[in-house]
Each structure stands twice: as C-alpha cells, then as structure tokens.
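Figure 6 in text form: structure in, sequence out.
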C-alpha cells in the first residue's frame, strides 16, 4: 500500500447516479495550484487570504466551451481537515456527465485518482482517527439497519477506542512502575507492590475477557436479525417455527422433548427478514443429551436480537408458575424478550377452569411488568399472526441498541490480538502470584500485551493490516 501523502488525490465523494447535488473531494498539498486559473471565486480576496475552513461560491471555467459551472467550494486550508492536510470539496449539480467532466479536468491538472479508502487512510496516518474509528467509517457506509448504524457511530465516536486506549495507558503506567523498580533494584526501592501488580493485571484481564465475549457474539451475528423461539416443552414453538418459515423443518409431536437440538432458517415473512431459531424446550434434566440441548438453547438466547417466549394457553397451575419463572430468567438474559400465548385454537373443553384461571393470572402479572398483554396466537389457524408481525417490527427496531460495541469487520481483525492480550495478561497474573518470579519477567508480558493492543488501535501497524482494512472501502471515502 502506498502511504505517501505527497500526492494530491481526487475522487467523486457522493453516491453514483443523478442527484440534486454531487461532490468531488480533493486532498493534498497542491490544491491551490491545481485550482488556479479555472476556479473563479465570487470574492477572490477572501479566497486568497483563507486561513480557516470556509465556504466560497464561484464558477468553474474550461470544462465546457458553452458556459461556466456554478459551484460551492468548501475549503479546509490547513491540517484541521478530515485528512489532516489541505482539502476541498466541490459541490455542484449532480449530473453524472457533468461530474465526470469536472473530475477528468481535476485529474488532467495534476491530481491522481484516489484509491479505495485513501481519504480515510490519510486521516488515520495523520492521527485524526485510530484504526477502530477508520473501520467504523466503513461500518457507517455499509450499515443495513438502524442498529448497525448506531454501532458504527458509537465506534466512530471513539467509544471502544477510548476504553482500549485507557487500558493501554494503565498497562504503560504499570510497565513504567515495574521498570523503575528494576532500575533501582540494588537500592531495594519498591515502586509497586506485588499485591498491587496482581490487582491491576487482574482488572485488565477481566476487561479483555469481557471484550472477547463481545467480539464472539458480534462475529456470530449477521446483517439479518436473529429471532429465537423459547419456552417450556410442548409450548407450540416448532409449530410456530414451521408456520413462519413455511416449511416442515421442525418435527412436531405431543411428546415432550422432541426438539433436542436447535434449528435455524432464514425467514421472509410479512415484510420482515430475519433468521428464525427453534430451540429445545426449557427443562431440568440429568440426561447428558438433555443437558447439551439446554446449553445450546442458552447460547442461542444470549445471541438473539429478540427472544419470543411461547406460553401455552392450557398450562396446569404448577407449570404456569414454572413458565413465569423461566420467562423472567430468559428476559434477564436476553436483549429483548417478547412473550406470546400460543395454541389458543385448542378446544375449550380440553382446558378446565382452574387451568385457564391460573394461566390468565400469570399472564396478567406479565402485563403489569411489561406494559402490554401477551398476544394470543394459533400457528395452526393463523389467528393473531398479523398482530405478531407488528410486535416483531417493534421489537426488532428497538432490540440491542447500544449493546454492540464492535463492528463485524473490527471483531474479525481484533479477535486474534485480543486473545493474545488475554493470554499474556493471564501469564503475567500467574507469574505475579509467585514471589520468586522477578519483575523483569512480568515486564516482558506487559510489553507483549502492549504490542498486541497497539496493533488493534493502529499504534503499531503493517502494510498487510492496512491493506486488509482499507481495501474494503469504496473510492471517494
């Protein structure tokens, strides 16, 4: 990758196609020379004396023999621009032939075409952005929905960068204390006690372990939302799964425990697109296969954007209480939990009055806690499915806001380095637990952890890392 900042680069910065407004972005040291003779500002004195970011109106000549082109020029004449060097944007009518003609003239006058992501690369090299924020720029561009946009904007604002930078500062201070003690080892001066070293390393390792868990969850998610069906055995989950997926993928049986694994299918239903997951019924068992099924169910619940808790309408009193307890547990574990009442098509004769009364009371309690009554549905007859679709839209729109700090591309790149940091800190913590271990060995671990953190933040980088990040960008960004 060419890291030279000496070239003046230019590219179309607005979306392709016709529009009311088009933008051509130019960055580099020779902008004034490039624009001289064909950009004619309405106020030439202000343009020549520019020292701070300003907007200028004017005309471009020489592009068309018939007329001049009216243009707004936004000028950042110093290092306070996005790229950290002189930068201008030409805003003009968004006619594709016109934009192509102006861009060709810019190139003819000495600016070379910008490579994918080169404007953001220059921002990174100038210290305007760290590598996590640079990836967030791409995340903003590629966001498929409001949730992904919020995650990208949070990362761009420096949310996760700030926390990692703070961790790096803490480790640098700890390393400085250790090395100061090594410098005065013959005088027996202790700058930091072994107990304090243990505590500071343990706090850092816990923080990194939490980040690793977040990257694992983020990497498993996709642009499609993830909806998980959960509930007691025989709560109608598999029947609903088959109805929404328009398939018979899930085996339906009155025998409890029919679903032992989880099933997942992409669903396009009622204008909604999501991945639907059917899980094993929630039960307590000593059977090994049953325990595995429960572990898989718990993992799916934690990874879900929305959990749909299915409560059968004909529960007996004891199971109604159990259902309510497990629903509350699931609600605490998940980002968003929606409760529905299933199997309302079953004949009233099959339900005695005490069962109906008890189940109704339990659901009434959940109304008080959630604010909305659970929807009654029948996956067999289709009753209540339109209302369920409306609930899905609302739940998917509000689920997980702010809960994901990592973009998928960032998580993929950073996970290996985070694992190395965690392993190094664990080794340092173990070493610090032995009085016979010298501080110089702990200092070696600190340096290694700092090296891996530097790779995440971009303090330490290679051409290969930059190629992997910026090759994904489009031209003009």
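Output sequence:
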């Amino acid at each position: 990758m060419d890291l030279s900042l000496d070239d003046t680069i230019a590219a179309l910065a607005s979306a392709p196609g016709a529009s009311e407004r088009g933008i051509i972005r130019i960055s580099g040291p020779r902008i004034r020379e490039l624009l001289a003779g064909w950009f004619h500002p309405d106020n030439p004195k202000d343009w020549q004396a520019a020292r701070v970011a300003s907007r200028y109106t004017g005309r471009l000549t020489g592009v068309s023999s018939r007329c001049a082109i009216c243009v707004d020029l936004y000028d950042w004449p110093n290092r306070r621009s996005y790229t950290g060097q002189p930068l201008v944007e030409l805003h003009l009518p968004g006619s594709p032939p016109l934009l192509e003609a102006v861009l060709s003239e810019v190139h003819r006058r000495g600016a070379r075409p910008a490579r994918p992501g080169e404007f953001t690369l220059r921002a990174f090299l100038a210290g305007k952005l760290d590598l996590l924020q640079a990836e967030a720029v791409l995340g903003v561009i590629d966001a498929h929905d409001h949730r992904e946009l919020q995650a990208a904007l949070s990362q761009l604002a420096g949310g996760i960068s700030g926390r990692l930078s703070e961790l790096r500062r803490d480790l640098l201070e700890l390393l400085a204390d250790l090395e100061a003690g090594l410098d005065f080892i013959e005088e027996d001066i202790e700058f930091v006690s072994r107990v304090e070293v243990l505590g500071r390393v343990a706090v850092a390792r816990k923080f990194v372990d939490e980040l690793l868990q977040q990257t694992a969850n983020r990497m498993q998610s996709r642009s499609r939302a993830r909806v998980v069906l959960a509930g007691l055995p025989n709560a109608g989950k598999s029947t609903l799964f088959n109805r929404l997926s328009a398939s018979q993928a899930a085996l339906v049986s009155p025998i409890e425990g029919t679903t032992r694994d989880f099933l997942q299918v992409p669903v396009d239903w009622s204008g909604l697109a999501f991945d639907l997951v059917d899980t094993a019924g929630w039960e307590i068992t000593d059977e090994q296969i049953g325990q595995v099924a429960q572990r898989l169910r718990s993992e799916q619940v934690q990874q879900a954007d929305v959990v749909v808790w299915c409560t059968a309408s004909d529960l007996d009193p004891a199971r109604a209480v159990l259902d309510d307890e497990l629903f509350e547990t699931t609600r605490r574990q998940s980002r968003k939990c929606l409760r529905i009442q299933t199997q309302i098509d079953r004949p009233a004769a099959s339900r005695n009055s005490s069962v109906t009364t008890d189940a109704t009371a339990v659901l009434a309690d959940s109304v008080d806690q959630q604010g909305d009554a659970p929807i009654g549905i029948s996956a067999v007859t289709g009753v209540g499915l339109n209302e369920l679709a409306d609930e899905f839209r609302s739940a998917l729109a509000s689920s997980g806001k702010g809960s994901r700090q990592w973009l998928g591309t960032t998580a993929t790149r950073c996970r290996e380095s985070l694992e190395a940091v965690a392993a190094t800190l664990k080794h340092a913590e173990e070493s610090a637990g032995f009085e016979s271990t010298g501080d110089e060995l702990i200092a070696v671990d600190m340096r290694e952890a700092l090296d891996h953190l530097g790779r995440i933040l971009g303090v330490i980088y290679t051409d290969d890392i930059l190629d992997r990040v910026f090759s994904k960008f489009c031209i003009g960004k």
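Caption detail: Residues 255-260, 349-364, 366-371 have pLDDT under 50 and may be disordered.
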